[in-house]
Amino acid sequence: QVQLVESGGGLVQPGYSLTLACAASGRTFSGHTMAWFRQAPGSEREWVAAIRWSGGTTYYADSVKGRFTISRDSAKNTVYLQMNSLKPEDTGVYYCATAYGVITSSTYYARSYHYWGQGTQVTVSS
């Protein structure tokens, strides 16, 4: 059974940085795509970034490109989201998700992912 556990959320001021972690367990993740989504109150879940577990190819939403970095540590079965230059509009619950065999054109859609973590709150406010 796949389990994803996010950590690292919190309250930070605009311009500061935060790193989220997603600890994955339950299977080997080669061939999987790992992704981060976020959801602000009253808004739909929004794709943020994704990484191919095998090969490490990364994808980013335009709104975070140049500020956020997604990475994975295969030895620890953990995916990270380094968030720099945070803005108030980055506020939301951040979710980790995974699925096997996600094609590139489907990387951005929540419906492509079968397993989800419980989420971690990120609040950017002065």
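Next protein, fold it too.
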Amino acid sequence: QVQLVESGGGLVQAGGSLNLSCAASGRTFSNYAMAWFRQAPGKEREFVAGISWGGGSTLYADSVKGRFTISRDNAKNTVYLRMNSLKPEDTAVYYCAQNRLSFTTAQAQESRFNSWGQGTQVTVSS
């Protein structure tokens, strides 16, 4: 059974930075594409960033492109999200997710992912 555990959330001022981590266990981590999603209060969960199984391709939502960077360390079974130039509208619970199929490229559709972490809160004050 897959387990994903996010960490690194917190309270930061606008313009600041945070690093999120997601530690995975239960399947061969390096075989699966990963992604970050987020859900703000009263809104639908939305895609933030994705990375292919090997790390060679990445995908970003337009709202975070140029500010956020997704990466992975397959030796540590961990995926990261580096968030710079944070804005109040980035405030949300951030979730990492693992693709249901192995050896896929970076993907954004929520239906492609069948394993989810519990989420970590990111709050950006103005």
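About the second fold: The mean pLDDT is 97.
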